[in-house]
Amino acid sequence: MSLTAAGATRQRAASESAPPSEKALSTSDEKSFDRQGDIETATVDADSEEAVLSNERDIASHVISVDDDPTLSPWTFRSFFLGLGLSAFGGVLAEIYYFKPQTVGVSLMFLAVISYVLGVFMETVIPRRGLFRYLNPGPFNKKENAFVVIMASASANSALGTEVLAVQR
């Protein structure tokens, strides 16, 4: 993992400002640790492959891809078709089981997995040439999957209006 010039400057400043006991333990090729309260942070030199994640922002940006391809569009036939279909599925299940003694909800993870599987299936089944080429613009992408999951999870939560109508009855 490479550091920017600001990170390298911070690394030198942290190793120079360390107390003599800590400075004697670390060399210029190894990680230097700086103890601040209960949080232990570490700086990494440019040659190292390891990274110590020190806060929530580092963890989120390390786990989740922050790259964006502006050429990919979430507004495709596949995403609307799957979004509406899974929205109807989740909404109907939520309303049916809303009045049962044991409520059953549709999991967000289930919706994400099934939307991805169905999206890849539609990518392979819908023709890419001929009359229907506009229905299949390319590979099923993460923007389409996120769009479908947002639509389906919004409808899978039971509407509050249902509870109001049930109380009036």
UniProtKB/TrEMBL annotation:
Main location: membrane
Transmembrane segments: 80-99, 106-126, 146-167
Membrane topology: Multi-pass membrane protein
Assigned GO CC terms: membrane
GO biological process, one term: protein transport
Family recorded in the similarity comment: Belongs to the oligopeptide OPT transporter family.
Full protein name: OPT-domain-containing protein
